[in-house]
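Why do we care about 3D structure at all? Because function follows from shape, and shape follows, mostly, from sequence. That is the central idea of this module. The next example makes it concrete: a single protein chain, its amino acid sequence, and then its structure expressed as C-alpha cells.
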Amino acid sequence: MARRRPVRAPEPLRATSMWRVDQVFLTRRGVRVEVTCSMVNDQGGLRNLSVTAPTDDPVQAVRHAARFIAGRGNVSSARQARVRWAREQTTTLQDELIRDRQLEDEFLDEFEETLSAVRDQQR
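And the structure:
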C-alpha cells in the first residue's frame, strides 16, 4: 500500500512583503554617486533598488538613498546593512571585502529617522 504524504496547509498570501536592507553598494557615475540597495524579505526573496544621488559626496549619497528606501513604506529595517564600494570601484581584491563602517552608521541613522517620520505620518 502506498504511503500518503501528510497534507500541509498552504502558506498564507501576504498583501505586501516586508523587506530588510542587507547590503548597500556605492558606484561613482561621473560627478554623482549611484547607490544600490540589496534587500531580502522573510520568504528569502531578493530585490535591488538603485538611486543616483545628486552629489559626489558618499555621505550625502547614502543619506539620500536611505531617505528614498525608507520612504517606500514596505522596508522594515536596515540593521546590520553592510556598505561597500562596488567591485568596479575597487583597486585590489582586498578592497572588495572592506566595509565602510562610517557610511553604514550614516545610512542607518538616516534610515531610522525617515522610517520613524513615515510611521508618525501613518498614525
